[in-house]
Design a protein that fits this description.
By secondary structure, the chain is α+β, with helices and mostly antiparallel strands. Helix content is 45%, strand content 11%. The strands form 5 sheets. It has a 4-stranded antiparallel β-sheet with strand order 11-12-13-14. A 3-stranded antiparallel β-sheet has the order 3-9-8, with no helix packed on it. Strand 1 and strand 2 form a beta hairpin. Helix 3 crosses helix 6 and helix 3 packs across helix 7. It is globular and about 80 Å long. The termini are far apart.
Amino acid sequence: MLKARLEHDAVYGRCLATTEAVQQGDIVVEELPFSYGPKRDSGIVCLGCYRYLDFGEDGDGDGDRCELCDWPLCGNCADVAGGDHRGECEVFAKARVTFAGNVGEDGVCPQLDCITALRVLLAKEAQPERWLEEVAPMEHHEQQRRANADLWHADRVNIAQYLRGPCKLAERFSEELIMQVVGILEVNAFEARTTQGYPLRCLYPYTGILAHNCVPNTARSIHPSDGYKIRLRAMVPLEAGQQLQHSYTYTLDGTVQRQSHLREGKYFNCSCDRCLDASELQTHFSSLKCGQCTEGWLLPKQPTALDTIWSCRACDNSSTSEEVRQIVDALQLEVNAVLSLEMGAKRLEEAERLLRKYKSLLHPSHYIATGLRQLLIEMYGRVQGYEMVQLTDQLLERKAQLCREVLKVLDHFEPGLSRARAMNLYELHVPLVLLAKSGFIASRLSGADLRSRLIEAIDLLKECVEILQHEDPSSQEGILCGVARQALQQLTASVEGLGNQLE
């Protein structure tokens, strides 16, 4: 840790707070993972690089197996001495337990569920002090996990009993310890991606105990090219002694969806300011249009309760939570149907159609409408028939408007150094530049006006680069940072040249 200390909070339990005043962008925590490995419920992946392997119906794998233990390993990783697979390889080879290659109808290979847990157990033996001081105290919510009898039984059979039985580790690891490790991973692990973009999960003992808030004050970046080191930065300036808070759910979900995710996956209910406010900090991010009056919105009386009345503040109209749930579920089904379409003109046009349709049902900032806007931002300029060179001024204005509307929401829920903000700033600068140039060519804008518009785009790119410069260069965000930096240099040169012409 750098500028953080361990504390115990009456509500959050073990958590972290700043040791001193912190500026926006400062690193407050930096650590290497205790262990990492395949995601839970994955398909068959290489145990060295985590890319998907096609073992076919016969489960043969076309040679993508480790020569020593017979478990999944691609040809490239087989040539690397040691690597991530070395620890379990020794266990499997000694026990002579082979990989069956069975995959269920859901595409999941249950036999691989034991890998990451086994790696944590092996790391415990290699780093006993770090285990005792950092990992063992982490929450694993055994009682709540036992309540899900099917999942508990599957973990006990596929992981604990498998490792102690066929893998012959009964004398080294108790069933209780193995189930503790499974719980620690389930509750605390973060998803990461390799330099090639393949998903995995990592266990960070300090970052993993951060308190949750649906409006976080920290942002994390994981660097696969640096041993999956995680760096936690302050999104906004922080005072000395201020609690570090992160979001363990998607900030652009509504309160009901966030609460459900946290209850089911993290075993707690959130009571942050955003969750307790029916209007979600005056954004009306979950509010529905009142069906009885023209000005009112339906809001929940008790936002964090499973069953609560939704009432209009402008009239006496009200609905039950079940009625609201049915409306939202029906709309989400329509959105899912659009998401299932191939990336193309029809998908874009259907998203626009739904956005128009929902004007009479949802608050303009509702999370379903915001999600559709984000989808449209990503499609305008990229899909056939709507590529950037084909967009009319009207459609360029439309893309810019969509970006501004999403950015307005992000200002509330991800203030400061937000990756989502950076991505949308980049998306916004493109139509602004094209509109400025077309306006100048059509003599609607003077040279001074053109320069002013381009400077606005430069400011957007500067902020984009400022946010993304901390990302791993191999990540999607890191690559975009390079693209944005290049665009910034070119645009700055153009403005300087234009300035010389105007003098």
